[in-house]
Every structure is written in structure tokens, then in C-alpha cells.
Amino acid sequence: MNFLDAEFVRDFVRMANDGWEQGWHERNGGNLSYRVKEKEVEQVLENFVKKEWQPIGTSVPKLAGEYFLVTGSGKYFRNVAIKTEDSICMIELDAKGENYRIVWGLKNGGKPTSELPSHLMNHEVKMLSSNGKYRVIYHAHPANIIALTFVMPLNDAVFTRELWEMATECPVVFPAGVGVVPWMVPGGRKIAVATSKLMERYDVAVWAHHGLFAAGEDFDATFGLMHTVEKSAEILVKVLSMQQGKRQTIKPEEFRDLAVAFGVKLPEEFLFEKLVVKKD
Ligand code: 2HA
Ligand code: ZN
Description:
- It is built from 11 helices and 9 strands.
- 40% of the residues lie in helices and 15% in strands.
- Strand 8 and strand 9 form a beta hairpin.
- It has 280 residues and is α+β, with helices and mostly antiparallel strands.
- The chain is elongated.
- A 9-stranded mixed β-sheet has the order 2-5-4-3-1-6-9-8-7, sandwiched between helices.
- The mean pLDDT is 97.
- Zinc ion binds next to loops.
- The site of zinc ion (ZN) has 7 residues, from loops.
């Protein structure tokens, strides 16, 4: 079938465009990747034109031979829906998981996302820990979560608890919590290693002064996770802009009730007692 007619390609394009419409992808900001299922590879095989092998910049042996649909380096999310073949590509990994080659897309030249090492190392971690279920890795630049990294301690427990408190659905949507990566140079192996270490435990990691990194089983869950975290961050920014501190919030015992009602496990280390300052 025509590459652009395949459902996984259409879903990828829709998600990229949704992110653009949210305002999370100024210029060439952000990147998206999808680990393609075997039967989906078969659907589009006839479109492949295999380019030369290139080093990934890291090693992902467990992903040997896998195919990924990824956004292109320097390409704009804004263009993914209207110039798909110029903006994204499908890549194949070699038998060692050390090199990739483009098999479709980026028709005017270019490379996969500059964050390819982070994407692939995170795919490897999430694939292994989910028994193969996780397939999507998404990086975006949502303004509110980035703003919080300038005023909150860069610490998993503080970010998790504050974001959980701002919207009741949050502990249910990301019960494991949120990891925080201190500021690092983007695009290399170092940030990839730091992020993938956190993603052994979490589905979402904040990149200080930069953005957010999220993983999920499919496009809806991954986009929904990014959206939920950023919405919660937006509420926190609004609250902190109105006054210092919160007059009332969700308490540790209420989180425990929520966990029971929704059948999720919330780590106790995030349910610490807080000092509440009464203003009047
Ligand atoms: O420009 O977002 O982190 C792509 C990025 C790099
Ligand atoms: Zn970025």
C-alpha cells in the first residue's frame, strides 16, 4: 500500500500535528518516534528505498533489526502533515543495534531527529520493561512545565507531588511519578543515558529548562500523558502566579484513597507530609 495511507503513518502524522497545534513545537522543536510492528513493516515494504548505513551514536542491541518511524532533524512539526515525505523518515536498525539506515522519507535529504540516541535508548528500556508493549517516545517543549524548572527544585519527589496535586487525574495517569533530568546539552549520549535511567522507573521525564520526554504503548496514551502533565503544570503556574503557596490541596491520605479507588500504586516516598502555612 501507499506509505502515507498506512494507519500507523496516519496516526503518527496526526499526533505530530496535534502537538504543533498545542504550541509545543516552535520552529524545529521536539521529536517523535514509533517502533513499527512487524505486520505494519510488511504493509509498506514495497515503498522502501534503502540508503547507506549510518552510526546511531550509541548502542541498542535489544532493538537490532527493528524499524522506527521518526521525525527528521531540523524538520518542523508544523510541516509533518503537509510535507510528510520531507519531514519524517522510516529507519531500519542493523543486526548489532549500532547503525541505522533510512528506508523511506526525508526525500530532500537529512537525518533522523538529533535526539535519536535518546529515543532509541528509551525505546530499548521501555520495550524490555513492558514486554514489548511500549512503542512511542515523544519529546516536546511545553511552556508551563519548562517554566516550573526555573522555580522548583529539580527533584523527582517535588515535581511528582506538585503535579499530582494540581489535577486529580494525574496520579492515575502517571502513578509512577515524574523524573527530572538536570540541564544537559541536548542531542547526545549523556542526556540519553540520564533519561533512559529514569525511564526504567517512570513514563515521563522533565528536561530542565528544555522540555518533556514521554513514553507510551500507543500514540493516544503518549500524547495524552504529555497533555496531562503540561495541563497540570499550567494550573500550577496559574496558582503560583495568583499567590505564594496553595490555600488547600489534595492531602497524602486523599491520594491513598484515590489509589485504592482507581487501583493504582502510588509510591509512599511521594506522599510525604508538607508544612502548610496558614495565611489568615
Ligand atoms: O530541536 O527539541 O531537543 C529538536 C529538539 C532537541
Ligand atoms: Zn528539545
